[in-house]
Amino acid sequence: GSSFLYGYNLSVVNAPTVYIKKFYNETWERRYNQSITEQSLTLLWTLSVSIFAIGGLVGALIVTPAVKYFGRKRTLLLNNTFAIVAALLMAFSQLAGVLEMIILGRFIMGIDGGISLSALPMYLSEISPKQIRGSLGQITAIFICIGVFSGQVLGLPELFGQEFLWPYLFAMIIVPSILQIGVLPFLPESPRFLLLEKNDTKAAEKAFQKFLRKSDVSHEIEEVLEERQVQRNIQVASVFQLLCDNTKRWQILNVVVTMACYQLCGLNAIWFYTNDIFKGAGLSPQMIPYVTLSTGAVEILAALFSGLLIERIGRRPLLIGGFGSMFFFFIILTLCMSLQDQAVWLRYLSVVCILAIIASFCIGPGGIPFILTAELFPQSQKPAAFMIAGIINWLCNFIVGLLFPFIQKGLQTYCFLVFAAVCLVGATFLFCALPETKKKTLAEINQAFARKKMPLEIQEMGHFDPKGKSTK
């Protein structure tokens, strides 16, 4: 459930926007005896929303030393401290009359998200057998979607989407945090972490037995020990060391591209336009919050569907198909919104395109980038790989939040063509550069990357021996 809080905090600020801005104005008047200017209010609100990404970047930077020192499980456990502190700051901001408490709370909540989106996929990948590694990895994406949907539901006017109840939306963050604090101590640490980084064979054996529900785990221990034999003289790599490792440059490039496209593919633009598109379809403003719940429900269903398919179809087809489908529906959506005055049915087709883009994202790009980051690197390089992925993820998140208003203002509905181009580039790159990783060991994945690089090596070396030896 660590990723639940990330999803919840993506959507929780939408419903009370008007009331929080009113609170900012009242606080400003009380301090300075004058109303805040519209420009200053917009700046404060933009800062309140976008600082979540800055906090996420900080979390991504500290996750590597945290998981190395505390371990995966304990990092996730301690991470709840950030969530609880952030929830208290934001929940009591109105009572204290201090608007800065919301901004600081959003920043601290971002740190929680930055840590959880790296530590959680790492933990899940290390505790799961390779046969279900993809399906279990999709839990991250599924709970992000459930978090988004929960924020939408609790923000309804009948619940906490009211002027004097919006602080409770932030107070609810404490509930899943306390639940994790109560449950996580009873779960074992990652057995791969215990064996490869702590050299604690006995604890690793107990962890495997508890996770796999069987007494004989000799095969699993032997498989991990073989990896340790290969890496026996290798320390946990830093980000700089990983970036300098020429044998992993294609793996790094795949992670960078998938994480960048994850944020730049335009889903944030979809959320921005949803209300306008629903209004254009003839829905009343009172109905729109309830119809918007359909987008959250589609997210959850698509993520669950992906979890069921990922071990049957594989990561590569879902990723490429997801970005490819988003490209197609972005083009259709642009045409519909440009020509919607010509025919009423185009407005309803716009709604269908919105739901199709969200489903396409959740089936592939929504969760698989986190799974790939865990699968493409050995134990010694995973923390550094997740730090790189996290930095790219949160930087692109911040860039979208910063630049999107200008893109939208300059291009209007044609801004979707920018995101269509990103999706097309991502799908094309992954089609050319990403091998399938389904149910494969790290050695098999490395061999698949080597085969994709073979033509380049032939050009450079002149000869290539199929057994892996160069000849002159």
TrEMBL record:
GO terms for molecular function: D-glucose transmembrane transporter activity; fructose transmembrane transporter activity; urate transmembrane transporter activity. The chain crosses the membrane at residues 43-64, 76-96, 102-124, 136-154, 166-187, 252-273, 288-310, 317-340, 346-372, 384-405, 411-434. CDD domains: MFS_GLUT_Class2. It comes from the Eukaryota. It is found in: Membrane. Residues 1-438 form the Major facilitator superfamily (MFS) profile domain. Gene3D superfamilies: MFS general substrate transporter like domains. The keyword Lipid biosynthesis does not apply. GO terms for biological process: D-glucose import; dehydroascorbic acid transport; urate metabolic process. Keywords: Membrane, Transmembrane, Transmembrane helix, Transport. The keyword Cytoplasm does not apply. One of its GO terms (cellular component) is apical plasma membrane. It is a multi-pass membrane protein. PROSITE patterns: MFS, SUGAR_TRANSPORT_1, SUGAR_TRANSPORT_2. Belongs to the major facilitator superfamily. Sugar transporter (TC 2.A.1.1) family. NCBIfam families: SP. This is Solute carrier family 2 member 9. It comes from Pseudonaja textilis (Eastern brown snake). The gene is SLC2A9.
